[in-house]
Prior knowledge:
The strands form 4 sheets. This protein has an 8-stranded mixed β-sheet. It is an alpha/beta fold. It has helices spanning 42-48, 74-77, 97-106, 127-130, 207-216, 224-231, 260-271, 298-307, 329-333, 349-352, 402-405, 427-430, 467-477; strands spanning 54-57, 71-72, 85-91, 114-118, 134-138, 152-157, 162-167, 179-180, 182-185, 241-245, 248-252, 281-284, 322-325, 362-363, 376-377, 380-386, 389-396, 407-409, 413-416, 420-425. The termini are far apart. 19% of the residues lie in helices and 19% in strands.
Amino acid sequence: MQAPQDTTTPDVLPTCPTEDESVNSEIVENPPPLFVAPRGRMADKLAASAPYNFFLSAVTDSQPTHTDPLSVTFQELLDPSLGELECSLQLTYMIDINWLLEQYSDAGYEQHPLLILYGDESELETISDKQPNVTAIKIKTKTGFGLHHTKMGLYGYCDGSMRVVVSTANLYEIDWYNRTQGLWISPRLPAVPEGSDPTYGESRTDFRSSLLEYLGAYKLAKLESWMARIAETDFSGIKVFLVCSHPCGDYYIPDGPLWGHPRLGALLSQYATTIDATFPLVAQSSGIGEFGKSSQLWIQRQIMPSFGKDNEQKTIRRLPGFRLIYPSLANVLQSHDDICGGSCLPYSEEVHKQQKWLENYMYQWISRTRHRNKAMPHIKTYCRWTPEGLQWFLLTSANFSKSAWGITRYDKLLYINNYEAGVLFLPKIMLNEDFLPMEPNGKHPQFPMPYDVPIMPYAPKDTPFFINYLRSEESESE
């Protein structure tokens, strides 16, 4: 395995956010039913996935993923082996309420309390009239560019324990069909003993307090019971950091809590092992913001200084290079669903015409090792690696855009449009090592990368997939 190296300064710069989450189109006229995993086995599967607890969604048309121990279905998140469900909280952008309720009904939980925070154009405020156990709250953002983009599930069990799932998949059947999604699933988190000190049960990563800060920022009375439950839960078994974005404008960074790219930079400056700047940031996302024509603003002045930090370089002396994994048109055309496989890739040709230089930094989606080469990625990941292994790895809902990661002014004021959530894997905390192994080493399990390494750049005639191709296809069929 060779790590990608870059000895040049990337000519990359976003200016303003433009993001659609997805195009709501049927993938095929009569799709086969989603793959259903055997019941009662998820607890064993989760235990075997330690220490990373990092899964990819099963792909309906990729048979090898059905038996992959690191593949998971939504139905398995409700598996009885994980615990007897008492209540749950779901945070999402897109939602198909009928599909979601069917999943709960199939698991035997159709009458259990379910609170949903969502962001798309669905109107579910009256769902409680038909389904009294379900409460749905549409989360509005402060600007027309903002999205409630977080994908997270909290599952409370009858014995007082709970579990957290951070995902890239919407609560929408298409997202669990032939797309590559990522999920981190926490271990079962027990209730703290009665009379315990309030600090008892916090993780080394302060995950509990970070989660409480994030949920508290919504300022919703409906979340108060969940926050009380979280405060009385033992999170000490968690070894990842929660990295979130929350809409804010003129937010004074030193006041805390940190959101967006300043949050990631602060964690890397504490825990990331020092590596040479020739090893680039490898970003992989399903959406791309507007980057403009200059190379001297957002990425070079803000993103790289945050994403390039380590425990010795509090300030960056030399910016790392940059790689962006985003499916080419050729990638999409060979997908399970042909051109419709690109319905989760909203990058437009109009935006790209203003930043064609970006193709010099773009890499193919290749995932033959994980049997997902034909399952287009809705997953979003960021990482840096060397021949020794991963310096860090982030699984998140956040696409590569200002809307998701934020803009800083004068190094003090932060502007963010979106709600986002992700988990950061740092080897110092997770393994007490300098790197997460990308190959078997006999000491720790290999980190399950979602795509093949080394990564492959676009060929000279390749272009990114544009959502315009799909819109043209739809127009011709009407």
